[in-house]
Amino acid sequence: MAIVTKAVKGTQDILPSEVYKNQFLEQTMLDIAGKFGFREIRTPVFEHTELFQRGVGETTDVVQKEMYTFDDKGGRSITLRPEGTAGAARAFLEHGLFNEALPQKFCYVLNCYRYEKPQAGRWREFQQFGVEMLGAAAPAADAEIISLANEIFAFLGVEGLQLEINSIGCPECRKNYHKALREYFEARKDELCPTCLGRLEKNPMRILDCKSPVCKEIAKDAPAIIDYICEDCSAHFESVKKYLDKMNIEYVVNPRIVRGLDYYTRTVFEFVSTEIGAQGTVCGGGRYDGLLEELGGPHTPSLGFAMGTGRLLMLMQAQGIELPKPNGCDIYIATMGEQASYEAAALTADLRAGGISAQTDVVGRSLKAQMKYADKIGAKYTAVLGDDEIAAGILKVKNMDSGETKELAVSDFADSFMEFMLREETAALGESLGGELDGVDLSAILGDIK
User: Fold this and answer.
1) CB 82 within 8 A of CB 114
2) Cα–Cα distance measured from residue 295 to residue 47, given in angstroms and rounded to the nearest whole number
3) What mean pLDDT is reported for the chain?
4) Mapped to the 3 state alphabet, what secondary structure does the chain carry?
5) Between the CA atoms of 321, 146, 220 and 176, what dihedral angle is there, to the nearest 10 degrees?
6) Staple partner for 55: which of 17, 86, 315, 408, CB 3.0–4.6 Å?
7) Sheet holding 394-399, edge to edge
8) Can you name the residues that pair with 268 across neighbouring β-strands?
């Protein structure tokens, strides 16, 4: 019997105490992508299975071993998305975006699902940030996509990543390469795993991506595709490298990169770290010039990348990179008595309308218990509201760090508290800079806040 109070194997809960890291990371990625002209797209969490079979490739590990596929109540084969590109390409075709100005630039943050062995940095449900540029054939597009990923890592302060690039050519120049691979693997086919034995005729390049230690060892001495690419693909790759050189983006050519999905052509790349175990690829992507045609659309040269946010957070934690925590509770209004509870509800509503994070008791605790709770949630200021405060029309606000207090009128408490808090924080900032800030136009700042 399943244990209903335990998460399914390969999934994880992201608790309120940690989720701010994901939120910051995701928003940062979307903001940086926005500077490059990418706009967010949101696609369904499940698609027709054939989309991934045709797009990702029937001979890939993803399709053969890892997809969550089921028949819905209408008898249709449905799959939870294992990656984001196929869904974005489908949306591009379905909504006729190929008739719009090209390239179309998408970015997204989404959950993906793959049934694989859970390990450090790899889950069966995982969050992925990705970008897609549809309708761009020039090498400059390849370099721009890579520079976008590079800028994200630079902004976050991530160090020690190595950019590895390769060209896997086009379908035409891959024919000779496939022939060379078949000849190489044919001599050792008795040692291949059953899955790779089936790939030998259909798509021998997939053997290079096999996770089996035996197949990995055999593949080490296999021919390199960089030696088989055609003149056009070679010129494209050389141009990509020239752009990266001009942009001062360091890279190494790794002729063993093929990426795990069949839709890739020409440029492929990975940002790799040695600090998060064997699964060291933090970001991977490349060009997929034939995908849109494979899905029944017009020829649309395209490219993109994806990075797992969980794996990136692991790397940032290993490097001691701290992410800014969100603002906590600005003020907690403790109450004594029923009438005070009603008044506090009105006051906190006014404060929140003004952009202040305000809380009050909603449990019926004693005053002592309320103050303990305010301390636990890290309230910057507290106030106690009872019958005497209501009668006097005055509420005493306490700075929980300094212990200093300030009396404010209840009648315009929200506005008065916002001005008071801003003055306190301005003074604190002045002290941290070595002296009070003179000549600061608080009225202008307060006008913006209000």
Assistant:
1) yes
2) 13
3) 90
4) CCCCCCCCCCCCCCCHHHHHHHHHHHHHHHHHHHHCCCEECCCCCEEEHHHHHHHCCCCCHHHHHHCCEEECCCCCEEEECCCCHHHHHHHHHHCCHHHCCCCEEEEEEEEEECCCCCECCECCEEEEEEEEEECCCCHHHHHHHHHHHHHHHHHHCCCCCEEEEEECCCHHHHHHHHHHHHHHHHCCHHHCCHHHHHHHHHCHHHHHHCCCHHHHHHHCCCCCHHHCCCHHHHHHHHHHHHHHHHCCCCCEECCCCCCCCCCCEEEEEEEECCCCCCCCEEEEEEECCCHHHHCCCCCCCEEEEEEEHHHHHHHHHHCCCCCCCCCCCCEEEEECCHHHHHHHHHHHHHHHHCCCCEEECCCCCCHHHHHHHHHHCCCCEEEEECHHHHHHCEEEEEECCCCCEEEEECCCHHHHHHHHHHHHHHHHHHHHCCCCCCCCCHHHHHHHHC
5) 170
6) 86
7) 358-360, 331-335, 381-385, 394-399, 405-409
8) 166, 286
Q: Report the relative pairing of strands 302-308 and 331-335 from DSSP bridges.
A: unpaired
- Residue 306's DSSP bridge partners are 130, 284
Longest CA pairwise span in the chain (Å): 94
Whose structure tokens read 């300094």? 402
Give CA–CA dist 441/448, Å, rounded. Answer: 11
Q: What is the pLDDT of residues 332-341, one digit of tens each?
A: 999 999 999 9
Q: In what order do the strands lie in the sheet with 265-272?
A: 39-40, 104-113, 125-134, 302-308, 281-287, 265-272, 162-167, 252-253
Report pLDDT digits (tens) over 383-437. Answer: 999 999 999 999 999 999 989 999 999 999 999 999 999 888 887 777 766 654 4
Whole-number Å distance between alpha carbons of 100 and 59? 33
- Fill in the amino acid letter for 238: E
Distances (CA, A) of 232 to 228, 235, 236, 297: 12, 5, 6, 24
* Type of residue found at 228: Y
Q: Write b or e for each residue in 89-115: b if 16 or more Cβ atoms lie within 10 A of its Cβ, otherwise e.
A: bbbbbeeebbeeebbbbbbbbbebbbe
* Amino acid, res. 124: R
pLDDT score for 107: 98
Which residues have a Cβ under 8 Å from the Cβ of 380 and sit 6 or more positions away?
328, 329, 330, 331, 399, 400, 401, 421
